[in-house]
Design a protein that fits this description.
Blueprint (H helix, E strand, L loop, with lengths): L11 H33 L3 H28 L8 H18 L8 H33 L3 H33 L4 H26 L14 H9 L2 H31 L5 H26 L3 H19 L8 H15 L3
């Protein structure tokens, strides 16, 4: 089993294993983010209004269960630590929920479809939270060395970008292959495959990492005092607004891009080409993030500058399309992805 040495160094296998945790997360959640909406509307036969309402409600549901799960993980005590046991237990359960979410019966009545969609999706969000929060917190429990934590997070970022690129490249062909006779069979089969990858990656992360830092018990502070402190913290509020805008850009683009290639460009296979064009800029951006930001004096101003470049690149894409101006369109896509990772 991997662990932290006396000088705070973390073995390479532990860094790799931690990165694989995010590979698993992306084979689950990026599949959901990029393909679930079009599955609901085009395969399951649920109205866009109902799907949109669910997505809005799920954000509030996420805001409720996140702090609850976070509190539970901090109170967990076991021979494996506080956070690693959650990967072992919650990952296979979440994989089952992923499969259930992509199990469609288009012949059901509309109300039955909506009820099934709401229950399975909300359970999936909860399951993913039970994996992702302890996984994200695990890094701080592996070592107290700042440089080692930066390397661990770099491993995570690079692994995530590779996973996202691979997933986006192979998913449409897999859906076509397994769904040649029935689209619902294609989505269900891919969900089973990705659920197995999700579970295996977190089992590997559990097996080859170790919680070497004893995290102190957190001081209990009332919600009223916390909210008062937040409202008086102007930089935090600005960062919060920025994160909300970031979420609109990231998740909005991920949810709409397949619709765009399918119904505007007229060919869903363009999505695979698009994904191939952004994978290299994604990996380069993720690998360079920590070293470059460590050398910069004003990280906030730098991030703002890259946000500006992202906006310019995205707006420029409006004037081109994949069918008639493919070279420029895909070049701008890669440029947008590179800048977007630095925000």
């Amino acid at each position: 089993m991997g662990g932290e040495s006396k000088n705070g160094k973390v073995p390479l296998i532990s860094k790799i294993a931690y990165g694989f945790g995010d590979v698993g997360c992306n084979f689950s959640w990026m599949f959901v983010s990029n393909f679930l909406m079009i599955f609901y509307t085009d395969v399951f036969g649920i109205s866009m209004a109902a799907v949109s309402a669910l997505m809005l409600f799920s954000r509030f549901w996420d805001a409720i269960n996140d702090p609850i799960v976070g509190g539970l993980t901090d109170k967990t005590k076991s021979r494996w630590g506080r956070y690693r046991p959650w990967l072992l237990v919650a990952a296979p359960i979440t994989a089952i929920l992923l499969v259930m979410t992509f199990w469609a019966r288009p012949d059901w009545p509309q109300n039955g479809k909506i009820i099934y969609m709401v229950i399975t999706y909300c359970l999936l969000v909860l399951g993913y939270t039970c994996v992702n929060i302890p996984y994200g917190t695990l890094c701080g429990a592996m070592t107290q060395d700042i440089d080692e934590r930066a390397k661990i997070n770099t491993s995570r970022s690079v692994a995530a970008m590779i996973a996202i690129g691979v997933l986006n490249i192979i998913t449409v062909p897999l859906l076509s292959k397994f769904g040649s006779h029935s689209a619902k069979t294609g989505y269900l089969t891919v969900a089973v495959i990705y659920g197995c990858i999700f579970t295996a990656c977190h089992f590997f992360c559990f097996a080859k990492t170790k919680e070497a830092v004893i995290t102190p018990e957190k001081e209990k502070i009332s919600v009223k005092i916390q909210l008062k402190a937040v409202m008086q913290n102007r930089p935090y509020l600005l960062a919060l607004v920025g994160q909300i805008l970031f979420g609109f850009t990231l998740y909005g683009r991920n949810a709409d891009i397949l619709y765009y290639f399918t119904y505007v460009e007229g060919n869903a296979s363009y999505y695979t080409t698009y994904s191939m064009c952004i994978i290299i800029p994604s990996i380069i951006g993720a690998a360079c993030f920590q070293p470059l930001f460590r050398k910069l004096n004003n990280k906030g101003r730098t991030a703002s500058l890259f946000a500006l470049f992202t906006g310019i690149s995205m707006l420029s894409m409006f004037f081109f399309n994949a069918k008639e101006s493919s070279a420029i369109f895909y070049a701008l896509s890669g440029l947008t992805q590179f800048f977007f990772l630095w925000i």
